Amino acid sequence: MFKRLGRIGLAALTLATAPLMANEDTAQARERWYQAIDQRYGVLSDASERLEASAIRFCQQPDTPHRKRLNQDWMDAYQAWQAVRFVDFGPIEQQSRAWQLQFWPDRKNLVGRKMQAWLAADQPPTAEQIAGDSVATQGFPALEYLLFDEHMKANTLSQPVACGLMKAIANHLADGTSALRSDWQRFAEHYRTTRSYTDATLHGALRALETLEDKRLGDPMGLTGGAANGYLAEAWRSGRSIRLIEGTLHGLEDTFLPGLKTLLSSRGQAELADDFRELLDRTRHRAAEMSPGLAPILDDSAAFSDLQGLYVQVGQLRRQLEEIGGTLGLVRGFNASDGD
């Protein structure tokens, strides 16, 4: 039996009235969400398989073209995860799967320390050993260390231990994302027939925007009580933080928004979804036009102004979705990121 909401049980959004769950049109929204999420999990699984194959090819022939392809396949798979990251219920809750894909925040540099320990070993680990190790060794940030960290010299990745470590991590990712999609498909009937998953899906999208505003942007920008610190950003080693944010916004636009519009249209309020889509589209385009890394922007006043603009728009998206939630019969409780 799948856990229903996990940490969502502490809900930041709770039902105020019965109409949202009693409305049979919510089943149509869940059907659209199910199909879109299934497709996104498929994209993630396929991208992870390409990443694994790319790692194998590079280790067989560690030349510049294979390295460029490896870097790109890592980015493609990482963005594919971002696009479906808002789904924080169902199979993704099992076995710390989200943490296996992305161990973050990492304020103690556990990823770096774990990678250094494996690189110092006499033999590379097997995929089974990676599966049994810490989540800090299992996902995209661990591969990012091997591909981009300053301690990895030009030829280090082609060495047997480093290449073996990379292949083991990539294999674990490919196996894990394939299993995730299969489990989502087995979860289909439960999701489709359980009205409370309408609430869960709305909450997941709102939580994604809260995390994006407060932690993924606010913390490294120094807007949440601390000093600006680029090392608090995701993907700081590769300088791809903004590209990951773009991936999240893209996923909300093409995976979450269609079901939301179905839900609002059934209540004669499709214009609310249109307004949300318009702002979401503008915010995504803004991110796409920015330089890929967040940390360098902190020292560039002009670029930082643009980053502040992105932060403001994400906050506007968050408030719009909160208002939509209220329209649908949901009320705000305490902040959804409390307790993280």
Question: Helices and strands in order, then pairings?
Answer:
Blueprint: E1 13-15, H1 19-22, H2 26-60, H3 64-83, H4 97-101, H5 110-119, H6 127-132, H7 140-148, H8 160-186, H9 188-193, H10 196-221, H11 241-265, H12 270-289, H13 301-327, E2 330-332
Antiparallel strand pairs: 1-2
Helix pairs in contact: 2-3, 2-8, 2-11, 3-7, 3-11, 7-8, 10-11, 10-13, 11-12, 12-13
Q: Counting H and I runs of at least 4 residues, what is the number of helices?
A: 13
Biggest sheet statistics: 2 strands, antiparallel
Question: Can you tell me the CATH topology of the largest domain?
Answer: A middle domain of Talin 1
Looking at the structure, what is the overall shape?
A: globular
User: Gyration radius, to the nearest Å?
Assistant: 20 Å
Query: What is the number of E strands?
Result: 2
Report the average pLDDT across residues.
91
Protein name: Imelysin family protein
Keywords: Signal
Pfam family, one: Peptidase_M75
Subcellular location: Cell envelope
Explain briefly what this protein structure is.
Residues 1-22 form the signal peptide. It contains 13 helices and two strands. It has 340 residues and is mostly helical.
How would you sum up this structure, described in words?
The protein is mainly alpha-helical. The chain has 2 domains: 41-186, M75 peptidase, HXXE motif (A middle domain of Talin 1); 196-332. 65% of the residues lie in helices and 2% in strands. The chain has 13 helices and 2 strands. The protein has helices spanning 19-22, 26-60, 64-83, 97-101, 110-119, 127-132, 140-148, 160-186, 188-193, 196-221, 241-265, 270-289, 301-327, and strands at 13-15, 330-332. It has a two-stranded antiparallel ribbon. Helix 10 (196-221) runs antiparallel to helix 13 (301-327). It is globular, with a radius of gyration of 20 Å. The two termini are 25 Å apart.
